[in-house]
Amino acid sequence: MPRDSRTPLIQKIAKQAHITFKGWKPSANGDNKLFAEQQGELVSLVTTVRAADLKIAPRKSNSSTGAAELQSPPVTYMHICETEVFSMGVFLLRSGASIPLHDHPGMNGMLKVLYGKVSVRCLDKLENSLSVGSAPSQPEPPLALYQTSSLRRSVLRSVVELSETSGPCLLTPLRDNLHQIDTVEGPAAFLDILAPPYNPDDGRDCHYYKVLQTVSQVGPEGKSNEEQQGEEKEKQEETWLLEIPQPEDFWCGGEPYPGPAVSF
């Protein structure tokens, strides 16, 4: 017991992540009682982590709009560890920054806010049964013919605000697999676990998406019907996504991780 109490929390989290996702297969997700128990243990550990455990000091809002700030990345990443089983690191977002809507093909994920507050919008792609006449009518702005192959049907699952006192936000290959992350009222940071890690060679590349709006969804004042009728109704409705290149106003820099080292 004394030795375990000296083990850094992030080391315990890494060990449990390895145990949880080693040998994991998509077909077993949700049907495997052992996996559910191991994931529950991982959630319990991640729920308790705070910025201080990783020796990360919360950033302050910077009101400066100078050239240096405009040229610095809106998001930076601290790499903690990566194996064939999972990757783990910390994303730090400047005040007003956003990580655009993106997917995690065939991956599980766990997001735990360390400081600040973020809004997380989660969606899922539906079976893509796009055919002649099934594309969204009168998208705004209109799509070019070649773009129709990049359309995806989707459904908005949830929109939640998370802070350091919130539990982790989970994603699976089939549930909440796409998300957009926006800062709320200042800078924020979150611990990010992905299992398995992104790997384009294994079909796990990151794709970005844009939510389409049709002319019928836009009211006389430029507000969508969903906005006018309330967010709860919006969550129940399907929408169309357009796969796009990485947005030009988003890029991610890197910075050293100052916390306890993780080893296996």
From TrEMBL:
Coiled-coil spans in chain: none
PANTHER family for this protein: 2-AMINOETHANETHIOL DIOXYGENASE (PTHR22966)
Gene3D superfamilies in the cross-refs: Jelly Rolls
Keywords, comma-separated and alphabetical: Iron, Metal-binding, Oxidoreductase
Basic and acidic residues bias spans: 223-238
MF-aspect GO terms: metal ion binding; oxidoreductase activity, acting on single donors with incorporation of molecular oxygen, incorporation of two atoms of oxygen
UniProt protein name: 2-aminoethanethiol dioxygenase
GO cellular component, one term: mitochondrion
Species the sequence originates in: Champsocephalus gunnari (Mackerel icefish)
Pfam families: PCO_ADO
Annotated region (Disordered), positions in chain: 217-238
